Amino acid sequence: MLEKHQFYINGAWVDPIQGTDCEVIDPSTEETVAVIALGGQADTDAAVAAAKTALPDWSALPVAERVDYVRKILEAYSARELKSRMVQMNGKGRGQRAPFGGVRQSGNGREGGVWGIEEFLEVKSVGGWPD
Question: Dihedral of CA 8/10/14/19: which sign?
Answer without folding.
Answer: negative
